[in-house]
Amino acid sequence: MLVIxxxxxxxxxxxxPHHAELAVGAFALLTLAAMLASNLLWNRDDAAALAIVxxxxxxxxxxxxxxxxxxxTDAYRYLWDGRLLLHGIDPYVVAPTDAGLQLLRxxxxxxxxxxxxxxxxxxxxALALFATGALLSRDSLLAIKLLMALGDxxxxxxxxxLLRDFHLPRGRAVMYAWSPLVIVEFAWSGHLExxxxxxxxxxxxxxxxxxxxxxxxxxxxxxxxxxYPLIAVPVFFPRRPWTPIAWVVATVGAVYLPFVVWHANVxxxxxxxxxxxxxxxxxxxxxxxxxxxALLVVGAAAVIVARRAGLGxxxxxxxxxxxxxxxxxxxxxxxxxxxxxxxxxxxxPFEGALAPLFQGIQLWLLLALLGYAAEAxxxxxxxxxxxxxxxxxxxxLRVLAARASANGGxxxxxx
Length: 415
Prior knowledge:
Elements (H helix, E strand, L loop, with lengths): L1 H11 L7 H22 L5 H19 L8 H13 L20 H4 L13 H13 L5 H24 L8 H4 L2 H9 L4 H16 L3 H14 L7 H4 L5 H21 L7 H7 L12 H20 L4 H15 L9 H6 L12 H13 L10 H29 L3 H5 L1
Helix pairs in contact: 1-2, 1-3, 3-9, 4-6, 6-7, 7-9, 7-10, 10-11, 11-13, 15-16, 18-19
């Protein structure tokens, strides 16, 4: 299989900087294989297809699980924050450079830490995962990576159940299972996003089954792993939203409360990260900050209105999250893994006014690894974001044309 050959090549490279051409070629092969697989397996729902999807997915992840992270050093910070918690030290208050932490600075770990002068910014459930990984193994990344890989597998299992509940072919799960971005970022880099996706998938499943309070609890878990799902909470409850939204807020507040009691500062480095850090952003920096906020609020309101008018839940989430990333100051490549989870749940992604946007996001997902080169090569950023903005513009024109047609041309005559 092309996927296994490509992943095995990446896993076998010990010095990637000196074999950059081979690594890029393997990534390109992996991307090509994922595209072909999506076309071949998209409408399959038989046991044989499912076995192929799952077998290749698990083997590909296993090949990278024991490989030292290269594209990102976040897993080292996860382990560091987890070790602090196990020693009774608040990660939101104490930075790695603090003089009192000298005995905790294992050279192999400390040398890989980014943002050494800043405390943590991860929400409490994320810190709990880090502490669990540190408890299992304080002197290696293996336990941390295993935990994040487990979240990835849980997200895939929930996606398969969602496809069944949405009455869609389970072969569509190949978009997530064989996604180069998902495989690399979760199995190799060990990113936390896997558990956020698992919680979002569970929230979708509970919402689909009409279990609103279970949905709210799952959404709260997603927020407590990565904060950005907070913007999507109203979309889950477009009618009579206040009770489940209050449940989400109360759950998040209750989990943060022990840290508030411990120290008043429970945001750590987050304010500085949001206001000063920029990476792989597109619109942000070109548009004034207040206008960014206004656009996001208006966009969220428009999506909620569209939900009340019948827009599907997966479609609404894709549109809202894509808008949020487009307006964000930081868009790390692994953020886009959420689209690999959501796109298979769109009933007809190749039809309708939003089809160009969905297809553009699918290409954006395949090109996401270019984000690592965005700061050094602006052309890479342009190539990465082009599918998103071309697709969005095309869909916008389709929506306007549909409205004009529905009004018998009255809208155009009124302009």
